[in-house]
Amino acid sequence: MTSGNGRSLLELIDGADERGLAAAGLACLDRCLPLLAPDRADALRPVWAAVARGDGGAWGEAVAKARVELDVDGTEDAGAVRRMLAQAPAAWTSGALRVWAGDCSAAALALHGRYDAAGVPDGLVERCRAGDADGAGPLLAGELRRQLAVLEAAAHGPTGLRRAREVSTEGGRVLRAVVSRRARTA
Asked: For residue range 25-72, what is the model confidence (pLDDT) as tens digits?
């Protein structure tokens, strides 16, 4: 599955600016937050505000505060989300943000794939990121679509971030519902 303009997720990450990279990584973290702290959906709001302003100083401070606020115990999946937050770079540089956005992308896709009924065969997450979503279940495919949408929206600067946050919020609701349904049937 490629984006509407035919570019893969990897190509979009590669071509994104600092704001787009920060938004991409943060959106992945935000969508997966229900696995770590389902009752703290607003914990990342100050980080989103820093991204909207393109303010590297505020970014570092907001990320540090979010780490403290979201320092909670949880499942193995919660640990993966905690690592996404822990690896957020304090520096607002394209290199550091690109690595983080790429790592968050892979982690979010893998987490969503774990909740698909069919599971995720080896190599599927990387194939999806490269533009080949053949064999992806509905949750993995949906997360891939959301990642593409966030990167495309963030390319439009601060005005596109509203759309990126909407996509992220919707994705968080989807994952929260799946986790809740699975807990009821377990």
From this structure: 999 999 999 999 888 878 999 999 999 999 888 999 999 999 999 988
Calculate the alpha carbon distances from 6 to 2, 92, 112 in Å.
5, 28, 23
* Phi–psi pair at 123, nearest 5 degrees: 85, -10
Q: Is residue 23 classed exposed, middle or buried when 0-12, 13-18 and 19+ CB atoms within 10 A define those classes?
A: buried
Q: What is the 3-state secondary structure (H, E, C) of 122-173?
A: CCHHHHHHHCCCCCCCHHHHHHHHHHHHHHHHHCCCHHHHHHHHHHHHHHHH
List C-alpha distances in Å: 65 to 35, 58, 61, 62, 85.
19, 11, 6, 5, 11
Q: How far apart are CA 120 and CA 179, in angstroms?
A: 17
Distance CA 111, CA 106 (A): 9
Buried/exposed 76-110: b ≥16 CB within 10 Å, e otherwise:
ebbebbbebbeebbeebeeebbbbbbbbbbbbbbb
Average pLDDT, the chain: 91
Whether the CB-CB separation of 92 and 56 falls below 8 Å is answered with yes
